[in-house]
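Recap quiz, item 2
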Amino acid sequence: SQKIEQNSEALNIQEGKTATLTCNYTNYSPAYLQWYRQDPGRGPVFLLLIRENEKEKRKERLKVTFDTTLKQSLFHITASQPADSATYLCALDPTGGFKTIFGAGTRLFVKA
Amino acid sequence: GAGVSQSPRYKVAKRGQDVALRCDPISGHVSLFWYQQALGQGPEFLTYFQNEAQLDKSGLPSDRFFAERPEGSVSTLKIQRTQQEDSAVYLCASSLRGRPVSNQPQHFGDGTRLSIL
């Protein structure tokens, strides 16, 4: 069956370090993959989208990679700040479908 | 409004009651999605509308769940004869263009937290 897996355990890092979050998927051939941020009690907020023919995408302190051979995306936050503390969700759309499938998310805590 | 608006923010109902959850998408957005999110989990797809047409309802858990978007803007998710397992946050999202070709990001509301006693 189709599946997305994200680090189930929370990630604790020190301010200023780089946070790296992992998203693995099986039995999909997505055309693109998205990352969202979700704060407690709020809806997800779109961060970045990367297409299958793109290896890497950057936006300010954020970087996403997409390896369709490994079926994996990595999400990096450089120079992390306490304000980056949130849950980060990866999401993909099965090719040709209408639905979006989300991972369970990884909670990130950045300590000052 | 500037973003997706959902109401009510919180809803408490007794088991067996019917509830209706409302979503006001961003004006002009073609696509509208409903998701169910359990505590500690990611959003789980329920249904998709392109304008007023419901093109995918494969995620609706049972025939007690019904969604509509009659004029292609506001949408309502209705749950009949609620059960305790329906307790969750219900999220609505909209995006500018239609599926499946579009790869537009989704804009989410802050959800309705439904508690069934």
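Residues 37 and 70 of chain B are 25 Å apart (CA to CA).
Chain B has no helices and eleven strands.
End of item.
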